[in-house]
Amino acid sequence: MANPEILSLLLQCHGRFVSGQEMATALGVSRTSIWKEVNSLRSRGFIIEASSRKGYLLTGCPDILDPTIVRFGLNTERMGREILCYQEVASTNALAREIAETAIDGTVVLSEEQTVGRGRMDRGWSSPPGGIWMSLILKPRIHPMLAPRINICAGIALATSIKDLFGLNARIKWPNDILIRDRKVSGILTEVGADMDRLRYAIVGWGINANVDIEALHPDWNATSLQAELGHSVDRSELIRSILEEMEGFTRDLTDEFRPVLDRWRSLSATLGRDVRIITHEGDIIGRAVDVDDKGALLTELPSGEMRQIMAGDCIHLRGLDCFLDGRER
Amino acid sequence: MANPEILSLLLQCHGRFVSGQEMATALGVSRTSIWKEVNSLRSRGFIIEASSRKGYLLTGCPDILDPTIVRFGLNTERMGREILCYQEVASTNALAREIAETAIDGTVVLSEEQTVGRGRMDRGWSSPPGGIWMSLILKPRIHPMLAPRINICAGIALATSIKDLFGLNARIKWPNDILIRDRKVSGILTEVGADMDRLRYAIVGWGINANVDIEALHPDWNATSLQAELGHSVDRSELIRSILEEMEGFTRDLTDEFRPVLDRWRSLSATLGRDVRIITHEGDIIGRAVDVDDKGALLTELPSGEMRQIMAGDCIHLRGLDCFLDGRER
Fold it and tell me: How many other C-beta atoms can be found within 10 angstroms of the C-beta atom of residue B35?
């Protein structure tokens, strides 16, 4: 782990040299300590120019997850007040769950790899290096009935960030996958701990195929990565900051009128207006996805015209098949 | 901890002597081992008669919480498959939370005392010896939206058990206190761990003033105990068995039609039909409690005639005061 203060100073002096003496004075350490720490940062992949006259200049950061880098330029009050970065964990959500009772609101857990990444319904999830495996612990004072709103915000925050930063047309597939060109670039798993009348915590877990080789992902999944879509790697820390900033805005008051948020979800949806097959515990439902409500349920019009509120299930987007005609003719 | 097999055998032979040889053969140990274990049970307060001709006879059990005693005569399939008894824990709900992810459905956690008992809204809860401080871990495959049903069942299960076993008129005060003669004999704290589309676990915590000296309870609370109401102590294990049996019946299929359960709640309610003041985050609400819904919300008629669905709050039963008149006249 790099000395966060020296790294922070070098980041703040972006574009200009800072002398070893200036750093030593600012941090209350010797110039030799500075020199040692600079070398330690270099060994982690940071590119730092040194000039005996002018001092040190940070010219490049490695593609690593580091609290100091993530926090640098992060424009939030609550999100990311605590940022924990790991090389490898079983799953960031599991780790977040362990610390959730005592963690502060806005705590972020990041890991370069997950050994037991988990998707919805306890399915496996590939978590190779280069991805963003991130969990955010939130402790809003709300009734647990409002928790689905956090999950809805999590999808919007990521899709919006990908659009804004990289210009990719990211869309939300119900309930909460993020697609680019109909391929999955991220899954979101939100968990809660709650009393009956009070949310104790929510944990939003994003698994984002950022700088991931598509070959490293599960071959059965129709997956893509930001790197594959763009043809180059992305600044993962920048994406993380953007997600946290979006989440802070969205979750400021979850008891507020939720219609504007739902409107944003609708505008980003890959599912609404499409014919879908939804696999539920009670069997398959085929119909047209019409709307989403503030519980995150999908409102689906069956071929009979009946409207169905679907709380949970796996959604398959049907292609080139009009289920309405289909339903009538067979 | 007593040897559960020897205790179990003595319990099964209730009312008749069982020879040391018979026990030794049944359990595959020596007669000396049996003799040692019998003495060990005696040192824990079990009263065991011994006759050199006839063998051993259990004539009395101490008032302790022991898995073998609780399980003896327990008529359930799921509830109590695992029973963990402690002398002292911080809180049985906290311990249950720690083991919930790996625990089996129906696991029970019991403790003679709690050092940090917790009520609703993180309030303190007195947990002196003689009470029943119990948590039940449930893992039904349901949507988290249905979790409030478990909480509703927990109140009915306890009130019904107290009525049936002891003939006391136990009633449910919304949201989930159990009252006898308008004094609190138990509080219930239900917690959940959930994904957005699946309950991972629910933990029902009952704090029951069973054989508790009223003086040992918090003086500010209008509390009573079963012992105080009856004038004698109760068999705590019998009450625990009854609660578990009731819970098994109620929670067999939580997706079923819930109206019959709500009807039972209504018939046991101390709150419905009364004028109440409910302290909520958004301020106090005064009105008449009219009904409860399957989310556990209290439907309250305001003096204006408006109906209000109250999801969470502290309820005060008003006495000798007609809030409707009151509301109109001031």
Answer: 15
DSSP line for B115-156 = SS-B-GGG-B----TTSEEEEEEE-----GGGHHHHHHHHHH
Domain ranges of chain B: 4-60, 67-268, 275-329
Report CA B186 to chain centroid distance, whole Å.
Answer: 8
Identify residue A209 by its one-letter amino acid code. Answer: N
Residues A83 and A69: their CA atoms lie apart, in Å, by 10
pLDDT at B321: 52
Secondary structure (3-state) at A244: helix
Give yes or no for residue B324 having a pLDDT over 60: no
CATH number of A4-60: 1.10.10.10
Per-residue confidence (pLDDT) for residue A269, from 0 to 100: 97
From the list A144, A200, A312, which residue is nearest B198 (CB)? A312
Take residue B120 and report the two structure tokens written for it.
């609703």
A259 close to B (CB below 8 A): no
pLDDT at B56 over 90: yes
The three-class DSSP label of residue B233 is coil
Report yes or no: A148 at the B interface, CB cutoff 8 Å: yes
Q: What is the pLDDT of residue A323?
A: 47
Model ipTM value: 0.84
* Average pLDDT estimate for A203-220: 88
**Cα separation of B122 and B118, whole Å?**
6
Per-residue pLDDT reduced to its tens digit, A278-292: 999 889 999 999 999
Tell if the CB–CB gap between A147 and B196 is shorter than 8 Å: yes
Q: Closest Cα of chain B to A171: distance in Å?
A: 20
Q: Which of B197, B296, B313 sits opposite A312 (nearest CB)?
A: B197
Look at the domain A67-268 and name its fold: BirA Bifunctional Protein; domain 2 (3.30.930)
Q: How many CB atoms lie within 10 A of CB A118?
A: 22
Is A119 near chain B, with CB under 8 Å? no
| CA–CA dist B106, B164 (Å, integer) | 23
Is residue A303 over pLDDT 90?
yes
β-pair type (A107-114, A83-89): parallel
All residues at 6 or more sequence positions from A119 whose CB lies less than 8 Å from its CB, including other chains: A125, A187, A189, A207
Q: Fold for domain B275-329?
A: SH3 type barrels. (2.30.30)
Sign, Cα dihedral of A117, A120, A121, A126? negative
User: Cβ A197–B143 below 8 Å, yes or no?
Assistant: no
pTM score, whole prediction: 0.89
How sure is the predictor about A66, in pLDDT bands with cuts at 50, 70 and 90? very high
